[in-house]
Amino acid sequence: MDYIALRGTGTIRRDDDLGVWIVTGFREVSELLRSPALSSAWPERGRTRLHGEQSETEGAPRTADIVRRWFMFNDAPRHQLLRGLMAPLFSAGRVAGLRPFVERTVGELLDGVPDRIDVVGGLSEPLAARVVCRVIGIPQEVAPRIAAWALDIAALLVADYLPRVVERGTKALQEIEGVVAETLRSSQVPAGSALDVLERAHQEGLIEEPDIAATASLLVFAGFDTTSTFIGKAVRALVHTGRWKDARTEHLTPVIDELLRFDTSVQQVARVAVAPVECAGHRIEPGDLVLLMLGVANRDDEVFPAPDTLDTERRTARHLAFGYGAHYCLGSGLARLEADAALTGLVERFGEAELAEPPVLRPHYGVTVLEHLWLRVRR
User: Fold this and answer.
1) I need a surface site. Which of 2, 66, 127, 152 has the fewest CB within 10 A?
2) What are the tens digits of pLDDT across the range 83-117?
3) Is 361 exposed, middle or buried, given 0-12, 13-18 or 19+ CB atoms closer than 10 A?
4) Number of Cβ within a 10 Å radius of residue 191
């Protein structure tokens, strides 16, 4: 999808080919993200025309049961219950407590790097994977498997009308379930980890047993995919725009916010209408599927002057990279910490960096993957 071209089609439009609404305006996206008329349970209720053409069971829920249990795809009260259980794991105090582990991991990954580094395979992916294992409470030996799982789950979320995608995504989810089950059987679940919290909640009757693996798989996917993708994109943007040294600052937070706005990791989120809602002169009807284009909204020139320019001096009051409202990204603080540590580690070690070769992008069932980002660096 050409996101830049979408900006010339108005802030909201109906795509009759897919049978969905596409919303691109910052104010409109912000409003709909908070609207009670839109449900997050699109895997349960939302279908495009592609699903109508391909599905053998028209009207059946989309994707796997384990994904439909993810609290990000549920509304109140289930969303509040599961999110509330996980929220303490991502509090400011817990995130601060993870800083030594994150910074040590960055150091280990960058130590011994000669004059070339693949930022994706050598830093962003292994960093995000190891942090995910730590938070969830699964063995660090699992970390190298997470990138492949996340890739196939990402495809499942956008192209679940293709049998091959369903097969691969389901296999990835089953493997995560297997790791969770094995960890729980081992009686070596770290105290205070996500699995520890979920297991106790199940024992207390607050959640069902399948919710343990479901929530763990959500944390595997969301905790890895968005963070590793953002770090790779952020480094690419800094090098491409000649802003490498701007990350060497005591005030890195506004730079990270501008990088999040400039090249948003999660480009779009879906919602399905459960009641009529008016938006920019259009009426969205119950049952309509709505795509909220976060990446395009973050380039809205009515909100961000010169939106296609990476301005590391910009003071962005608010962007939509982590969403908005009740479903605001629970792990945003941890993602910021990982990005801060990764960028600081790179720039402190390597005073200069340039692309050693063009970034390697690969389409994967509707998902564009930054597969490799090779830099030539100098200390």
Assistant:
1) 2
2) 999 999 999 999 999 999 999 999 999 998 989 99
3) exposed
4) 7
Counting as low any pLDDT under 70, the low residues of the chain are 1-9, 45-62
pLDDT at 57: 46
Residue 111 contacts residue 100 (beta carbons within 8 Å): no
- For CA atoms 321, 326, 329, 331, the dihedral sign is positive
Asked if 15 and 22 count as a contact pair (C-beta separation under 8 A), the reply is: yes
- What gap in Å lies between CA 263 and CA 248, rounded to an integer? 20
Measured distance CA(58)–CA(52) in Å, rounded: 6
pLDDT score, position 64: 79
Contact residues for 280 (Cβ-Cβ < 8 A; gap 6+): 10, 11, 12, 25, 28
Q: Pull the structure tokens for residue 320.
A: 């939509």
d(CA 58, CA 47): 9
What is the SS3 assignment for 38?
strand
Q: What is the pLDDT of residue 376?
A: 97
> Model-level pTM greater than 0.90?
yes
Q: Map residue 62 onto helix, strand or coil.
A: coil
Closest CA relative to residue 236, chosen from 349, 359, 118, 116: 359
Model pLDDT, residue 193: 98
Q: Give the phi and the psi of residue 271 in degrees, each rounded to 5.
A: -140, 160
In order of their start, the domains of the chain are 3-378 (1.10.630.10)
Closest listed residue to residue 37, CA positions, set 271, 262, 209 = 271
**CA end-to-end span of the chain:** 39
- In angstroms, the CA 178 to CA 10 distance is 46
Distance (Å, whole) CA 134 – CA 90:
12
Residue 7: per-residue pLDDT: 65
Alpha helices, H only, 159-299: 163-185, 194-203, 210-240, 252-262, 294-297
Each residue of 351-364: pLDDT tens digit? 899 999 999 999 88
